[in-house]
Amino acid sequence: MFLRVVLLILLILSLSSGYNVPGSSTRNSRLSPRCGAFKSRTLFANGVADHEAVLTNLKTEESKLMSLLTDVRSKKLAALRSKPLRIAVVGFGRFGQFIAKSFSKTSTVIAVSRSDYSSVAKDMGVDYYSLKDFDKVIEKGVDVVVLSTSILSFSSLLSSLLPPLRTIGGSQPSTNYPLIVDVLSVKSHPRRVMLESLPPHCDVLCTHPMFGPESGKNSWSNLNFVFEKTRLAGKTYPDPQSTLNDPSSSMDAAFSIDRVERFLSLFEEEGCNMVELSCEEHDRAAANSQFITHLVGRILGRQGLKPTPIDTKGFESVLQLIGSTNSDSFDLFYGLYKYNGNSMDTILKMKQAMEEVEAGLKLMEREDVNAPGFGGDAGLLGFQRKNQLDDSPL
Amino acid sequence: MFLRVVLLILLILSLSSGYNVPGSSTRNSRLSPRCGAFKSRTLFANGVADHEAVLTNLKTEESKLMSLLTDVRSKKLAALRSKPLRIAVVGFGRFGQFIAKSFSKTSTVIAVSRSDYSSVAKDMGVDYYSLKDFDKVIEKGVDVVVLSTSILSFSSLLSSLLPPLRTIGGSQPSTNYPLIVDVLSVKSHPRRVMLESLPPHCDVLCTHPMFGPESGKNSWSNLNFVFEKTRLAGKTYPDPQSTLNDPSSSMDAAFSIDRVERFLSLFEEEGCNMVELSCEEHDRAAANSQFITHLVGRILGRQGLKPTPIDTKGFESVLQLIGSTNSDSFDLFYGLYKYNGNSMDTILKMKQAMEEVEAGLKLMEREDVNAPGFGGDAGLLGFQRKNQLDDSPL
User: What is the residue range of the signal peptide feature (chains A, B) (predicted)?
Assistant: First the structure.
């Protein structure tokens, strides 16, 4: 998205000022059949000097572009800051505080929680409301509501937000409702719960920032941020994608798109790797990556494994896996299991694989005539007896 | 061992030439109570200049020691080369060739195998004998016989070596027999088989080089080499340790010690991390490190896991684990299981842990009133129904 904006601006600049954007017009003209043949002959004739000139030109082009990019970026940041989003972070635990701190760089953050986090919020320089005063947050107006809670308490937290949201009124357009965002490690569950319970004109964005206060401590650069634009201007994914890109779409849709893009750009600005993925695909992939990692980590974590004097590289990564997965709460592990429909299948496949591996070993055992305790050492013991006869005490 | 030799030589040098070995006399005199108190006051008075002088002296000392060390090392290498061991590597597959190549730098290597590897041996510049001509190898004389075979074929290979070894004769001293060395990834099994079947005057060294042609491709530096001096001069570990260090022990024992140390120094010279560990302890540690790593890798390897767009760091190490363990043969995995008495216990504990983890999840499931499909969304669905009434089509 950000790149698209930058490219668009560069394109406009190139058209208005005659500046050649490399990789588009410049490269094309150089590679056009006639001109290219001529150029390559000239290059060959003039040798090194010509090559150096080309390099110098490219470097100049590069530095011009870099300065344009810096300019565009600072303008974009200024734009974001000049029209800051009002973001309510509901649930102000460790993760809520973690994202709120980053949001507060360019946005107005309102912390909301059941437990009293007023002093933490004060230290961070953000407003604080108790969850039971959420109606006041709505009254004052808010662009985005981020639900930062555990998987297990998601639906109960959401239900306590519904009465204030309903005060906004029944058949209002989506512009009146805040965009509702979840950040859970499972996606189909919150998607279903939000679509089923929120007013139909409420925009919904499902996200999974695949990092936390530990892994994102220093920077969010190159960390995965998964999202699905679940419902915008009353249209539910994947149905509305074409409609939304349609220039004839309503003002409502334009407003919704602008707001969700501004929110997403908060993560984009921090350098996140933006992964647009349906909730369904996310859960399918997560069961066979994140959940299986936690499952194996939990199983191995019960073995009391410790470093030995003879650790292999493989075992060192086993110990690392145990450390990283067992430091998370069992609640999270349970949530990944119960609230992702694919996880039970992962457990069943894991158990089956364990049995298959064991069966493979037993099969070889039956065929292994040399196996200890199966009479396989008979030949050797024969030699041993002969040795004993010849070769005195053993 | 090598360090002990170096330290001994340095000690002798320091006594004869008056050279101060730092860390012994020099440091002690500096830290003696009276002198130390005086020194620290002087240091404080003279400040930076004095500190720099101390540093310069230490650097000079360091470089003198480094040059002595280099000298000792090159002399040691020359000594090894001047009296090269004759080493028969029996079993000349990938691993046999891998160690033979390194041995041949300082030793005379004789390759022996069932399959015809004569051309590989020729390329490596080492002699080659077919296994059925092992009697000729014995006849010509050999210091060390390294059995480089799979766990599964170890006892059958050993039994085919016994007749030629028996020709050496019954009640000869250990100096007449070669030192027999195994390199298996399990240790109690080959130890038992060798002690039970080899002539009682045959020296036995059990080893596990914890690296191979892949991990030791570029260097053996800092790679673990596990060994147990199982039987030397008729004395079996752990019984003979004190006897062997006893200066009154026989010429036989001195010969055995010298030979085993010369062989071990081949690995020491390559920079291996030398780990002296009993076979029993090795197998106990290996079942809870190497075997469990392979077990998990094999189980995970059956799940058809692939990189996803949302891989976590933990999952990346899971994929790495699968890759490294499944590239080894199933025979090796089976060997680690069947020929290590502790491995069955590892499997049982793993299965139990899997059941405990599942039971933990089921327990939470029963208590989780919000769980999907358990009527936990009832509150939400209540809101949803109200919303439906107020808020037109859902």
Answer: 1-18
